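BUG: 3D viewer hangs when loading the predicted structure for this chain

Environment: internal workstation, default settings.
Expected: structure renders.
Actual: progress bar stalls at 90%.

Input used:
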Amino acid sequence: MLQRTHYSIRGIDLMSYQTGVHKKGDFSVSDLVKNTIESKNYSKAGAIAHFIGVVRGETIKGERVKKLKIESYEEKANEVLNNICKELANKSGIVNVQIHHLLGEFDIGDDIVYVSVAGSHRTNVFQVLHEAVERYKNEVPVFKKEFIIKLDGKQQGYWVSEKIGH
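Structure tokens produced before the viewer hung:
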């Protein structure tokens, strides 16, 4: 069972599953939708946008990815994710912001991150969704190790840097 947290945005009390990192299998896109629908200000939402990050089957160089391993500095990752969501939820017209990153070993096509933004209008929502994705990728201590089959057929594992476009 996921921990639920209680926090306030613009003086409105909210109860939500904690944004943060979760072990693979402990959180799903269905949980994401349920969180949004159960949020206290859901009646103010006119739009909801979701981003689902999945494991790519190919590197930028065209090498085949076999699997991905994701780890994090969990305490700091949770702190940063919560701060990002709270800051973005304070933007005009935004009702609910969530970022949930999964940890563990993943196969090609597996979900690895869920980002959700609910707001009064789609223009607010799309803008904040983009910002949420860019911020989690640049600010959160989550580490990805790709296991690939190189073009010459050799297998290799290496840690991926988000800064180089992976």
